[in-house]
Amino acid sequence: MSPTPQPLTAERILETTEEVLRRHGPAKATVVDVARALGVSHGSVYRHFRTKAALREAVTKRWLDRTTLLLADIVAEPGTDPAARLRAWLTALFAAKRRKAFDDPELFATYTVLTTETAETVVGEHIAELTGQLTEIVRAGVAAGAFAAEDPATAAGAVFRATDRFHDPHYAGEWEKPGAESDFRAVVDLLLRGLRARD
Amino acid sequence: MSPTPQPLTAERILETTEEVLRRHGPAKATVVDVARALGVSHGSVYRHFRTKAALREAVTKRWLDRTTLLLADIVAEPGTDPAARLRAWLTALFAAKRRKAFDDPELFATYTVLTTETAETVVGEHIAELTGQLTEIVRAGVAAGAFAAEDPATAAGAVFRATDRFHDPHYAGEWEKPGAESDFRAVVDLLLRGLRARD
DNA sequence: CAGATGACAGATTTCAATATCTGTCATCTG
DNA sequence: CAGATGACAGATATTGAAATCTGTCATCTG
């Protein structure tokens, strides 16, 4: 769009790459497109990112990190009832994903492809961060005597995996169906019952 | 293989279609291939199945029904402890899927494509049958005073969805990883804890 | 006449030629 | 001389013509 006289930074490249991905989709967005949009040669892009895959990874990480940050607020919330906090966290995650999928389906499809490409690396770390947050919530719940769990990390992992259907993009098609909301509640209810400490 | 002089039945067509799918894969298996393998014209195949999609659906249903039947035995088991029976059912489902995926990865990939094609119809019914079995186990558990659940069907649905990761072919890649077994146990433990009746 | 056939139209797939892209690097420029 | 360039080789994607497939149906055959 603009010839942009500003210095070429990794940050500007990432912004432009997002834009190009939004416009062209994951299959047709090329490094040459990104360079063209920035008004530079594609060789310059390779000065900041070693490969096209690395560039895509960086964009994907940015996108995932936005969600991680959003949820961190809930973990940090002080003195809430552990069960309520765990439910709030899971609900916020589901809501965030559902909103992304619903508001801009094409962009969501683009990121679904990107995350599939980096399942083992970037997405793996993202999931580790999320289960880390969950572990923190469970740990606090155990400390408060509200939850019973031998190992908070194991329990958190189980909770995360048991709710895959409500955050894995693979199931996005199910998220706007009539029963989705009550299905979610039923799973969360069952999991919270399983965590709750016996008197 | 053989020119087969026997009468052309839907059953024989299904058997041959399985064979052709096994050989050629889902992308390249054509109705013409099936007809050729049977030594008939493809018009004759269309006398038994209205479309190629209908033929594929029928094959897929056969395949899924084999698993349904396997699990029905566990539901029918008399007088077992409800928790043990539920665990056995979930374990058998996971084991059956994992075996299929591991023993013949190409065939499993073929059926993964087929089930994706018929997600709304055949697979939907298959899932309904499985959750029906689960509901029966939960209902019996509630009757025996071992489980607490307002609505057994809802609880069964929640258990099924919470274990998606261990039966949805989408996750097949995870099933042979080191942690899979203990991840499975952690989720099932948590779910059983959630179902268990309080004294 | 129940059931099989194969020619056919329109849709889909294959294939090979062509164009574009990725990643490198010798060269240029401020 | 730090940073940008663009020519280049090999890999990948696009394209359009030809081949194959799907689904129908008038016709044939036991």
From TrEMBL, chains A, B:
Assigned keywords, A-Z: DNA-binding, Transcription, Transcription regulation
Keyword match Glycosyltransferase = no
Q: Which residues form the HTH tetR-type domain?
A: 7-67
InterPro entries linked = DNA-bd_HTH_TetR-type_CS (IPR023772), Homeodomain-like_sf (IPR009057), HTH-type_TetR-like_transc_reg (IPR050109), HTH_TetR (IPR001647), Tet_transcr_reg_TetR-rel_C_sf (IPR036271), TetR_C_27 (IPR041478)
- Gene Ontology terms for molecular function: DNA-binding transcription factor activity; transcription cis-regulatory region binding
Q: Which domain of life is it from?
A: Bacteria
Kindly indicate which segments of the sequence are annotated as binding DNA: 30-49
Q: What is this protein's record name?
A: TetR family transcriptional regulator
Organism name: Streptomyces zinciresistens K42
